Amino acid sequence: MQPGNNYPQQAGNSGDMSTLIGKSLGQFRIVERIGSGGMATVFKAYQPTLDRHVAIKVLPAYHAKDPVFVKRFVQEARSVAKLAHPNIVQIHDFGEQDNITYIVMEYVDGGTLKDRLKHALPVPEAVDFIIQAAEGLDCAHRNGIVHRDVKPANMLLRRDGHLLLSDFGIAKILEESTSLTRVGTGIGTPQYMAPEQGMGQRVDRRSDLYSLGIVLFHCLTGRVPFIADSPLTITVKHLNEPLPVERMAAEGVPAPVIQVVQKMTAKQAADRYQAAEDLIEALTGALAASHLSLPRLYRVAPPIPPATGGGSHPGTLPNQSSGSGVNISSMPSGSLAGTPVICFRCGASNPSSRLYCTTCGDELSNPRASKDTYLVNGRPVLARLTLQTGPESLVGRSYRFHQDVTTVGRTNGNDLIIPGRSVSRRHARLWFSEGHWYLDDVGSSNGTLVNNVRIFQAVMLNDGDVINFGDEIVVFNITYGP
C-alpha cells in the first residue's frame, strides 16, 4: 500500500475491480485502488464538481449477487450517513451503476492509527486518540449502531492528528425486528474482540468499549495483550487470561490510566464502562490525576505563524488550571465587596468577585493579554462572543477573548463554560492566527454550526457570524482592546 493510504488492505483476488481505474461511477472518476477488505474494495476517486478527492467503497461482484449482502451494504450507507460527527468518516453519496454498488466517503490522507503503532505512544497522545474514538462511538451508540470491529486499522488519521472512525461495514442497527441482526456471526478482529463477541453472543456498546480498551493497551505498550497461532486460541485468552498490566507499568503508564484500561477490558460487560461518555470522563480524570494533559495540537488548523509572530504557536494551549474558565451560568451580575483586583489590561480597579473587568471587559489580571501581539492602529484584535440563548439573565451578555486559544465546553477546565445540555464537555476551540479568527469543533456530540452550516474542519470567522454550540447560539464579533 502506498504511503498515505489508510484503508485496510487484505490479500485476495480483487477480480476485475482493477478495470474500474480511469472510469467513472456517477460524477466520480476512479484514480487508484487504495485497499480492500472483507466487504468491499476501496478506491481513491476525483469529484470535479467540488474539486476534491473522495474514497469509494465498491461491492465485489460475487457479493453483489447476494440480495442479503446487498441489503446489508445499503443499510450501512444509510445508517452511517446519518452519523454526522467529526470523529466518524463522512458519507457523501451512495449509488449503483452497471450492477456496481458503491458508497462515496470522505478521503483521509494521513494514514491509520495502526501505522503509528510501531512502538508505544506517549500516554497523552494515546489517550487523546482513544478519547476521539470514544467521541465517535458515543455518537454511533446514541443512534443504535455498534461498530463491532474497533481496531487501529479502522481509525483514520488526518495529518494533524484528528481521528476518524471508519469501516462501519459490519455495524448493525440494534433492532431485533431486522433480519440482518443475527447473533453469533463472529464478525470482528480476534486480537481486539470482546469475549462475548468471540463466543458468538449478543454484543452492545460495551463490546466496542472493550475493543477500544485493547486498542489503548496497544497504544500504550506497542503490542496487543494476547497473541496465538489461531483466532480461537486468542478468543480463549480474551475470555480467561487476565490483562498483562505489567506491560503497561513497564512502559511507565501511570496507575490511574492503567485502572481505566482494566475497567474497559473487564471480562464481564457489566463490569466495564457502560457508555462512551463515562469512559471519556474517566480518561480525562485519569490524566488529571497523573498530572498529564492532552496534547496541545490544532486539528485541521490553517497556517499558524511561528512563536515570534502574532497568534498562538502550534502545540500550545493557554496556561490554565482546572475550573478556571468563565462559567456563564454563575457570573455575578453586580459588584460585591472584597479586595480590589487590578485589570492586567487597562489598570482599572474591580471587585474581587468579578472575573471580567467592568471597564474594558477583559479577564482580570490575565497574562493572556500578553498574547495580543497582532495590532491594528496600535490596538489588539480581540474576539467577542455574545450569548443569544439561555436564561434571561445571560441573553445578550458578551465576553472578550485574547489572541490565544479559547476552549468552549460544558464542564470546568474550559475557558468558556456553557451549561446547556446539548453542549459537549469538550465542544469547540477558537483561536487567532495571521490576522484572522478561526473556529473548529473538537468532537462534540451535537455539532458546531457557523451561519447554520455544520463545520467539520477549522473555518475562518467573519464579523457577525452566528455560531451554534449544539442548541446554544452565540454571535461572533471582532473587537479591539484598549
UniProtKB/TrEMBL annotation:
<dbReference type="GO" id="GO:0005524">
    <property type="term" value="F:ATP binding"/>
</dbReference>
<keyword id="KW-0723">Serine/threonine-protein kinase</keyword>
<dbReference type="Pfam" id="PF00498">
    <property type="entry name" value="FHA"/>
</dbReference>
<dbReference type="Pfam" id="PF00069">
    <property type="entry name" value="Pkinase"/>
</dbReference>
<feature type="domain" description="FHA">
    <location>
        <begin position="406"/>
        <end position="455"/>
    </location>
</feature>
<keyword id="KW-0067">ATP-binding</keyword>
<dbReference type="InterPro" id="IPR011009">
    <property type="entry name" value="Kinase-like_dom_sf"/>
</dbReference>
<feature type="binding site">
    <location>
        <position position="57"/>
    </location>
    <ligand>
        <name>ATP</name>
    </ligand>
</feature>
<dbReference type="InterPro" id="IPR000253">
    <property type="entry name" value="FHA_dom"/>
</dbReference>
<dbReference type="InterPro" id="IPR008271">
    <property type="entry name" value="Ser/Thr_kinase_AS"/>
</dbReference>
<feature type="compositionally biased region" description="Polar residues">
    <location>
        <begin position="317"/>
        <end position="330"/>
    </location>
</feature>
<feature type="region of interest" description="Disordered">
    <location>
        <begin position="305"/>
        <end position="330"/>
    </location>
</feature>
<dbReference type="InterPro" id="IPR008984">
    <property type="entry name" value="SMAD_FHA_dom_sf"/>
</dbReference>
<dbReference type="InterPro" id="IPR017441">
    <property type="entry name" value="Protein_kinase_ATP_BS"/>
</dbReference>
<keyword id="KW-0808">Transferase</keyword>
<protein>
    <recommendedName>
        <fullName>non-specific serine/threonine protein kinase</fullName>
        <ecNumber>2.7.11.1</ecNumber>
    </recommendedName>
</protein>
<dbReference type="InterPro" id="IPR000719">
    <property type="entry name" value="Prot_kinase_dom"/>
</dbReference>
<feature type="domain" description="Protein kinase">
    <location>
        <begin position="28"/>
        <end position="294"/>
    </location>
</feature>
<keyword id="KW-0418">Kinase</keyword>
<dbReference type="GO" id="GO:0004674">
    <property type="term" value="F:protein serine/threonine kinase activity"/>
</dbReference>
<keyword id="KW-0547">Nucleotide-binding</keyword>
